[in-house]
Amino acid sequence: MTERATFGAELRRLRRAAGISLTELADRVHYSKGYLSKVETGRTAPNPSLAALCEAELGAPGALTPLLPGAAAPRRRTRPEPRPSGLPPAVSTFVGRDEELSRVREALEADGGVCVISGLAGVGKTELAVRCAHRFEASFADGCLFVDLRGPGGRAAEPPEVHDRLLRALGVPPETIPAAPDDRATLYRAGLRGRSVLLVLDNAVSSAQVRPLLPAEPKCRVLITSRSRLAPLDEAAQVPLDVLSPAAAAELFSSLARCGPGDAVTRIVSRCGHLPLAVRIAAARLRTRPAWDVRELDRRLADANARLRELDDGERSVRAVFELSAQHLPADEARLLGLLALHPGLEFDLGSASALGGHEDHETDRLLDRLYDAHLLSQPSAGRYAFHDLVKSFAREHILATLDRPDVAQAQRRLLDFAVRTAQLADRLIAPLRFRPTVEMAGDAPAPADPATEQQALDWFRLEWRALATLCRAAGEDGHHARCWQLAYFLRNYFFRIKAWDTWCDTHRAARAAAEAAGDQWAQAATTANLGVGLIDRGDIRGASECYREALALYREIGDEHGESTVLAHQAWARHYLGDHRGALADLREALKFYERVGNSRNAAITRRGMALVLTALGRAAEAAELAAATLDVFDRLDLGFDAAMTLNCLGWAYFHLADHTRAGAAYQEAVARAEACGSPHEAARAYTGLGNIAMARGDEEQAVAWWELADEAHPALDPLILGEARVRGA
């Protein structure tokens, strides 16, 4: 049996013993299935790169390399052969990264052939580079040279030192290597002339460190890894490396921990932020502790405040690699990174960052750009930045904790001021005629973001509302009582638009407590009344009624007739849903008298729309339709698209009760258009449900189901207690 056949036969035996198909092995080692088939059958000679990859994937170190054929005679050369590269072994557990492997290949095959793999510490840059080097080494006649540039952390390798190491690897006698850095660089470039070498420069600190190491020989290629993007290397192709996908992270963990998939594994890799280093450490801790199971590890990682401490296996530490990245930051960048950890979301905009840092936008933009280049922040879209959650934990625990307490307190105050001012402006754009309290700001309060249109305001709220809700609750806990209830107040119209009732109630409970702590009776009355609105739309009618009684008493005590009338209008809905339609109509008429007397046309129109729904419930649908149509004209005149959409649904409901399906259908169709234009999936779903009800009433079940499916897509599970259309559908 020949050496070549022995290699192929042993490869086939190892593969089958591992239960791996030829196709799967091809995917893992990134050689074609056809090529591997020829190797196994002895029709193609294997190479050292393939041997190393297969040994790693099959868990058989040293099993294949000794069987490589040695019959090929060495080519004659006029210069010394390069010494062995010392390329590190490829890890056996390598998942995902197919797209990045392809991009590295394309970069190395292109003219210039310089590729930078950059990414967050622990994301797997070196693993990918080594995998690529093993995969592509056979394409380079003179092999591969690997150098660790030792940065960040420790003393970064200087170019003359690296030149000396590379020259020795190229076979240059040490005594002939010049001492002068320029002469050494010249000899290095000359030594690569005419050669075909893949140069791997791992762990680069800066472009200044790398540039003197780039060969002039066009047949050479360079693969660089760095925590920085090395943007000044204009000739380099960039391959930024992100964390693993959830599926790939779970596969990596399961393979290393030797456990099956499951919900606990999914949670564990999520708590690791899908960062490969964190996943590997977590798997190592589980694998080496027989008394643990995945639930125990999941429990330990559940505490975000202890997570970095848990992600340490004695030799590897997520916290340690982040420290290496952070210790080289200039003071202003480190300060901003720490203060950004105060932001309640993982993602934030330039305005919030400027408020936290206390800088002008242009200066903040510069600092954020530096942190982005260092992969300590990512940029999901223009003007927005994001933390990896483990980086945020590190920034909070190890940078923010070192900052001066007064500086941190001022940053918190500035962020709250920015949030309240911007929310107030955005709220005014989406509900322009609603009453708003006066908000006092210090003279040094940061300028707000400046949404100019209703759509821009909706977009800002869409991106920020979760963080704003968290900030609202935190403000109350930290004693910023006014900012707490103000944030809740300015969020209410957006929450009403998207029907975020759970968050509405959470923020308003915090706001009510803050207003009470501040001794502000008006704020306590307003937030209590608004809490009732959230409770009633969640179906807690009695809880809402209690809120309305409390708010009504507070408004009457302070003599606020506007607030009293608004609560009466709200209270009417509680009576209506409890079946007391006549009592509801009486409350609405009482509120209407005040709105008409003070000339509040918007609130008067909203009240009449409510009366139309109550009249429909009382069997007076014709009167209701006439009232709703007149109300629609008011909203159109005031250019209030959301209120118009609600009114069209009310009109469609009245016509449906009159069995006037043609006019009901037209009203619902127009409601769909208006709801979609103003960004209200709830009102669109209500209209789709009404159209389905009309189709069913006409005997067209297939069309009814089609409309109802559209309703479910827009906003699932409309509450039949609140919406008549949902009750009819469910009947």
UniProtKB/TrEMBL annotation:
<dbReference type="Pfam" id="PF13560">
    <property type="entry name" value="HTH_31"/>
</dbReference>
<feature type="region of interest" description="Disordered">
    <location>
        <begin position="65"/>
        <end position="89"/>
    </location>
</feature>
<dbReference type="InterPro" id="IPR027417">
    <property type="entry name" value="P-loop_NTPase"/>
</dbReference>
<dbReference type="InterPro" id="IPR003593">
    <property type="entry name" value="AAA+_ATPase"/>
</dbReference>
<feature type="domain" description="HTH cro/C1-type">
    <location>
        <begin position="11"/>
        <end position="64"/>
    </location>
</feature>
<dbReference type="Pfam" id="PF13424">
    <property type="entry name" value="TPR_12"/>
</dbReference>
<dbReference type="GO" id="GO:0043531">
    <property type="term" value="F:ADP binding"/>
</dbReference>
<protein>
    <recommendedName>
        <fullName>HTH cro/C1-type domain-containing protein</fullName>
    </recommendedName>
</protein>
<dbReference type="InterPro" id="IPR019734">
    <property type="entry name" value="TPR_rpt"/>
</dbReference>
<dbReference type="InterPro" id="IPR001387">
    <property type="entry name" value="Cro/C1-type_HTH"/>
</dbReference>
<dbReference type="GO" id="GO:0003677">
    <property type="term" value="F:DNA binding"/>
</dbReference>
<dbReference type="InterPro" id="IPR011990">
    <property type="entry name" value="TPR-like_helical_dom_sf"/>
</dbReference>
<dbReference type="InterPro" id="IPR010982">
    <property type="entry name" value="Lambda_DNA-bd_dom_sf"/>
</dbReference>
